[in-house]
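# step 3/5: fold
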Amino acid sequence: MNALSLLVAATLSAGTPLALAGLGLLVNERAGVLNLGAEGLMLIAAVAGFATAFHTGSEWLAFAAGAGAGALVAAVFGWLVIWLNTNQYATGLAVSLFGSGFSAFVGIDYVGKRLEDTPVHGVPGLRDVPVLGPALFQQHPMVYVAIALALAVAWFFYRTRAGLVLRAVGESPVSAHALGYPVRGIRLAAVVAGGALCGVAGAYLSVVYTPLWVEGMVSGRGWIALALTVFATWRPARILLGAYLFGGVTMLQLHLQASGVQFPPQFMSMLPYVSTVVVLVLISRNPLWIRLNMPASLGKPFFPGA
């Protein structure tokens, strides 16, 4: 039971950055913008968050710095694809490559440095409950924030007028424009908000999950978060489920290695990415289901007056 409790706790922690980044990309895609630069956004935010925490000692300032860095880079991406109508796929890949190189350059002075130990987090009165306490109630507050954000995004999409307008822009920007809505402004706001969430995810990795900076430390999580939106068929609650599923696979391979399971470590390290590919292949077997759930204008440019 103790081993299971530790595995559940590690799964929640590992799934949190995936959930945050996945929710950010979901907001982008619901507005009709496909951002393939999540990996680069998270790397830039990770180094920004680590540097802030290292110099100030404040986790929350680090999260703010990560969100700001992610939002800034996402705003540049949004300006390029929304106003200059550059190709969304190529621009997103460029952002990902830029983020990888820029974060490595900026983070040279922080390699090998660690943050000071943080106090024990958790829900008072519940974190000491046997089995359930260590598994569910000794988490960093950002774990609970991610869960609350998933509920908030679902409420925003399906219970507010603003959410309805954003989804309408993703489905038919021409119709939304004809009704007088500023399609480009709405899309830019969605891209910036999504970038901020990716930034918080990156800062979580370098400040909480592994409180140090290592070049390329995001390790493909941005791409997994991108795959999560398809896995979740563009539903916020399913983003959360998928994030914990992939987080659990990641932690399972580490626990198996620690338990002495005789498998090549390279194979164990492949598990999260292999599971991602398998899930996407299974989902893609039903293209009609994908078409019915995917925003109709995803990845398509919009030209006002065209």
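# step 4/5: annotate
DSSP finds 13 helices and no strands in the chain.
# step 5/5: archive (pending)
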